[in-house]
From TrEMBL:
<protein>
    <submittedName>
        <fullName>Uncharacterized protein</fullName>
    </submittedName>
</protein>
<feature type="compositionally biased region" description="Basic and acidic residues">
    <location>
        <begin position="53"/>
        <end position="132"/>
    </location>
</feature>
<feature type="compositionally biased region" description="Basic and acidic residues">
    <location>
        <begin position="1"/>
        <end position="43"/>
    </location>
</feature>
<feature type="region of interest" description="Disordered">
    <location>
        <begin position="1"/>
        <end position="132"/>
    </location>
</feature>
Length: 132
């Protein structure tokens, strides 16, 4: 009997929740009012893009200055060429060291030949393992 008395109370609470939903509807309407404000801010951002365009033009003005600095670097280039010529003098020394390594190559070949001598031994051991 007591539980039946509680049922209408539950119904009341459901009605209260309906009231809350209507409040939610009101808040949605308020957000609609905010939309034109957002549109205004978008318009402001459009004005800022024109300012950005101005700044791009300013950077174009700086370009000839950059060209001057590039020309200065061209003046340095022959100095770099001289240093390259000096490195050419060192190149034959490097070639000599390569020739020395060629002298070592036959020694490496000998060691490879020695490893060939070991190969049949390995084959024998494999045959032994097959027999087991």
């Amino acid at each position: 009997m007591d539980s039946k008395d509680l049922t209408p109370v539950d119904m009341d609470s459901k009605e209260k929740s309906k009231d809350v939903t209507s409040v939610d509807m009101d808040s949605k309407e308020k957000s609609k009012d905010l939309t034109p404000v957002d549109m205004d801010s978008k318009e402001k951002s459009k004005h800022l893009t024109s300012v950005d365009m101005d700044s791009k033009e300013k950077s174009k003005d700086l370009t000839p200055v950059d060209m001057d600095s590039k020309e200065k670097s061209k003046d340095l280039t022959p100095v770099d060429m001289d240093s390259k010529e000096k490195s050419k003098d060192l190149t034959p020394v490097d070639m000599d060291s390569k020739e020395k390594s060629k002298d070592l190559t036959p020694v490496d070949m000998d060691s490879k030949e020695k490893s060939k001598d070991l190969t049949p031994v390995d084959m024998d051991s494999k045959e032994k393992s097959k027999g087991t």
